[in-house]
Amino acid sequence: MTTDTAQMSSLKELQDLIHEKYGIEPAELDPNASMREKGFDSLALVEFVFAIEDHFGISMPDDDPTIDTLAQLAAVVDKVRASQSTSA
Q1: SS3 state of residue 2
Q2: Type and span of the H or E element at 69
Q3: Is the separation of the CB atoms in 56 and 81 below 8 Å?
Q4: N or C: which end of the chain has fewer CB within 10 A?
Q5: Cα distance between residue 29 and residue 88, in whole Å
Q6: Which string of DSSP letters, residue by residue, matches 5-68?
Q7: How many angstroms separate the CA atoms of 22 and 4, rounded?
Q8: pLDDT by residue (tens digit) across 10-19?
Q9: What does the angle CA 84 – CA 63 – CA 77 come to, to the nearest 5 degrees?
Q10: For residues 64 and 5, which has the higher predicted lDDT (pLDDT)?
Q11: Is 86's pLDDT higher than 90?
Q12: From its phi and psi, is residue 60 left (phi > 0), alpha (psi between -120 and 50) or beta?
């Protein structure tokens, strides 16, 4: 499986999770647009990270200020998932 395929998989799951938690349609979510510009403040992003950890059964790294888009978040999720699967 290539990284692109894995990222697309996580990205779709993240879009579905946002839809479930916040009622935002996946089609309205540009993976490369700023999540903050879509109305996610710092608190909402922290809550979403907790939801991601629960959903994927992973532990996300501490808040990374460089993560601003859904695509960047998906890349971090993929990296954490890959490192956990290789260490398991």
Answers
A1: coil
A2: none
A3: yes
A4: C
A5: 33
A6: HHHHHHHHHHHHHHHHHH---GGG--TTSBTTTTT--HHHHHHHHHHHHHHHT--PPS--TT--
A7: 26
A8: 999 999 999 9
A9: 35
A10: 64
A11: no
A12: beta
Amino acid at 19: H
Confidence (pLDDT) at 39: 82
* Separation of alpha carbons 88 and 82, rounded Å: 10
Say if residues 52 and 60 touch (Cβ distance below 8 Å). yes
Unique residue bearing structure tokens 């699967």:
85
Structure tokens at 31: 């993976």
Count of positions (residues) in the chain: 88
